[in-house]
## 1
Amino acid sequence: MQSVTTKGPRAGLRERKKQATRAALAEAAVRLAAEHGAENVTVEAISNAAGVSPRTFFNYFDSHDDAFVMADPDIGKRIRRAIRDAPAELSPLEAVREAMAGELADLERQHEFWSLRAKVLQKSPHLLARGLGLHMAEERDMARTIACRLGPSAGTDITAGTDTSAGTEAGTPTGAGAEAKPCDDADIELYPRLLAAVAGTAVRVAIEHWYAHSPPLTFPDIFRDVFTHLSAGLPQPAPQTDDRPSDGRSTES
């Protein structure tokens, strides 16, 4: 999952400027690719459209392809932090839902960007493969974070939560006095893996449904409905009637 607008309530002026530059580069890359094809868009063209130098481009993205698939490389880190910091009374699914909702709060006003980005990726198999690899890496890191939050009840050492993509930031131990240490994939039990995978799929489905039905449906409504279905255990919805929209929600106030 990637968002073109980054978050961070305590971000200073310098960080906000960096966020704005990264967002401008990502948007320029997607718009140019939508018009000319990603393979025909150069780093120089992206940089020029964003009003920065090619050298500046590489301060934000490691490669040409990353500008199309990594609009915000820190989003996974922020989601994992929010999961770790979520109130203890929240269930794991609720903690993941709230963490993701916080990052997707601005998605509604980014409909054009997301739509263009989806079209660009669909036309570029190598970008889809790159995006899939990044998604799988983020999914593994989220599973580690969920396992760490659950602690021994998940069959995983409570200190095992190191984030392989962000140094020790996501390896903050939850046990008093505990030291963070690497968590091998083999140490993560089924539930954290499944929850991370299902949550990622839920967001993708919500976004795709939003593309197809917006308007009148809004992304927050669709996102909420998706996680409501998950919380209920995915029972079959009741048959639709004339006063129910296509997503199954009643039109009655």
## 2
Amino acid sequence: MAILEPRDAQDLRQIVADAVAGGTKLELRGGGSRADFGAPREVQIVSLAALSGIVDYDPAELVLTVRPGTLLSNVLALVEGEGQMLAFEPWGDAASTIGGTVAAGIAGSRRVTAGSVRDHLLGVTVVSGRGEIFVAGGKVVKNVTGYDLPKLMAGSWGRLGAIAELTLKVLPRPRVTATLIADGLPAEAAYRAMARALGSHADVSAAAHLRRGVTLLRIAGFAPSVEARCAVLPDILKDHCTLRRDGEASALLWREAMTGEALKGRVKWRAHLLPRHAAELTRRVETLGADWAMDWGGGRVWIGLDDESEDIRRIVLDLGGEATLVDAPVGMRSRVPAMHGSAPGVSALADRVRRAFDPADVFATGRFGGAA
């Protein structure tokens, strides 16, 4: 089946309208870097790659408007060239697009202090499952009129509509970033150290821990402030660990904690839970032979292993969290839903919202089980 490639929002609207009339299921795709997420499916692909380019960028107003097919790397290079950044620290591979990043809700280690994708998405132009174009939000930071529909699009995985344009809030990039490292801490001690650091006046912007006993703490800002906080943090954590200053090599360690890419195993899970339960989670999954990496001060734990059962999801649920199946062999993805099931009331509300945007189930491909 040929991939459909709309050139603009009107093209995209017509494709969706035709799908509504013909009962066709559509799957929206950016760079295709996460095409294997979710169950295998036979469906009409709509590539948004041609909807690319910068619409408007006003560094003074800290606002960027861009089309969804624009490569994430190009967006990051653009704002970095102006001494700015996307505060939620998105990450991806060479094919990743800004639209796909927003739709998947991808946020990096800074999310624990800077907020998620939805907190920085100001406005969107969307083609709904009704085949209608609507605009929500705006191109200014102080916009509180009406319902905050852009937040629904962040992390929606294209199940509510196709983003044709999006506006993001950007922030000044820190002049200096430093990483302090503690070596040899077990998971529970690392959690306590990260919690103490994140709650301190040292204004730590990110905290992560790798299974091999490497604990990472990031401090960012103006040079004098960073130096002062790097000097005081060892004293703050004197009852928890000894810290050493790391250089540029720490970028690879942050990438490892942020993405889980280096974990061993054919199956990869992502768990979200209260940070205080992260150490217990790592203890339990290690009994299954799992590898792991902890980010967001323990709020996100990546888990890698070869076992294709749902034991990881049951363990995470028992600890009050949610587990997402990120990557697995096709057989497992066919029988195990990627998304963690919601409570009945939440699930019913989510279904009502989805049907308000997509009453004909145009975007209900079965990728995430049921009508998702």
## 3
Amino acid sequence: MATEYGHDYGQAYGPEPGRPAAGTGFRLPAALRAPFEARALRELGYVLLSLPVAVLLFTWTVTMVSMGAGLLVTFLGVPVLAAALAGCRGFGALERARARALLRLDVAEPEPLRMPRPGALSWMGAVLKSGASWRALLYAMVQFPWAVFSFSAAVTFWPLGWGLLTYPLWFWVFPTYGGQGGLQLYGDEHHSVYLDNPFEITATALAGLLITLATPWLVRALTTVDGLLVRSLLGPSLLSARVVELESDRGVVVDTAAADLRRIERDLHDGAQARLVGLAMDLGLAKEKLREDPQAAARMVEEAHGEVKTALQELRDLARGIHPAVLTDRGLDAALSSVASRCTVPVRVEVDLPARPAPAIEGIAYFTVSELLQNVSKHSGARSASVDVWRAEDRLMLQVVDDGVGGADASRGSGLAGLAGRLDAVDGVLLVDSPAGGPTRVIAELPWRG
């Protein structure tokens, strides 16, 4: 792997949690600055826009679906229903764009229509059979009542909070122009209560302050529900997302296999094959000199014998890189111990498995630890390392720890990133914890699949 521990590690870490970044001054707590933040205004704008959009979407859906259902006795009902669903998909694109702009919620587009052939009939069939179309229809029916509720809550609490908070500035309107002491809190035929003395005015302002501070969080909770609706009903389905993920993983597996084949071909061509070609030429020359100069021929045969040994060792190393025999015969414990013995630093190996996992998972675990120990040897500057392997429920857990300089980062397109992609192809996970100065801890999770 190409990851170099300790280089540019400062770029991967920000300021410590709870400590302001360099050059920044004192900031108000989040609860106090929330009403003035751009995020709160964007979320309020989202809620206010939701009602007119919901009215249009609900009206379109109810009108077109009712018309299409009524016309199903004729052929006209099918295109009307298809148009209704297509309109819902169009509104869905609008809602995803609105959520992206105001809520900073990036929702991927749903799966596209699958038309076996071009044409209007094929398009109508694809729209009617698409799960994304019907989820958009469901969104139109569910989002309308929720938008009414959210809009009502927002337009009630935002003006109420600011109105009460600024009450000391405008309560004079009542005695001057209204003929009463202040804002009426209660009134019946016998008596009335007005907020007109300094204590009541101050208490009203404090109540307004509390409502003003709480309203952005209320609106945020409302938009969280909106985000869930957009993500679950207007985004790709779990099944289609899983298909895309599997297709991507299949591409990673194919690329990895192709890279391994190229590496094996290169090693054979530049190593054992070149030695065997040279060996054949040396033996040919020795054969020609056998009668003329037996001693020289004997020396050439002796040199060829040494080349045979070297070629055999290279072939053994190559075979071990493809799949070591010790792994097949004796399992991870013995195979990882063999890898650890070749590391340039002392490595403690602890394998605690109740049984052997599937051969494919076992091989991936072996090569994962091998590459991590190569990192330790080449880049970590460590004095010691450890390898722990255990099973946690249906997961095979691997942990490699070293006391080197740290700074490893899988997000910079390094060998760790490639290793993470290989693990992801089999539903595995790679976690890297490598602060500056060490220690470095890499944890890999693989499915057990015993």
## 4
Amino acid sequence: MHQQALAGPAAPYEFAQWKRAKVHVDYHVDVEGHYYSVPHTLVGRKVDLRYTVTTVEAFHQGQRVASHPRVDLRGRHTTVESHMPPHHRHAKWSPQRLIGWAEKTGAATAQLVSAILYSRRHVEQGYRSCLGILRLGERYGNSRLEAACQRALSIKVLSYRSVESILTHSLDAQPVLPEPVTPRPPHDNLRGPEYFH
């Protein structure tokens, strides 16, 4: 009498984690520091996120609305073109509006906001960082925020976290050091000032 073999699962079990998240103004959700797009119509709504070592999925009211390969790069974005809004629908938060708002704080703030927006593949990916920076003015005051943005620009760091760190550690009160001048290496064809005396 032979025994019938039991059929195992079609695919190996993959551990999944779940969390609930609000869709940000840039229509992305945060999964362990990486931002994944969902349809822009869900901005401001709550979605359920299911993520494994290989996949990130977003569900709204039980329907899957997005699926992405999992990426471990913190602070980066994974964006599906079809999730993006048509440009005319983005009048609420446009690059010009954010830069104009930043100009009310000062030139350095506007320059930093502009640099963040245009350093991204899609300007919308910089909205959250820029809004966060502008809100720091409410907590620390515009003059401190402007000084912090000046320092961030001088050390070439383009992120909300960097500006927040500068303010938290009161580095905005420290003088911005000029970039060091690198002396030219000696060369046979370069005449020093002593040649002319």
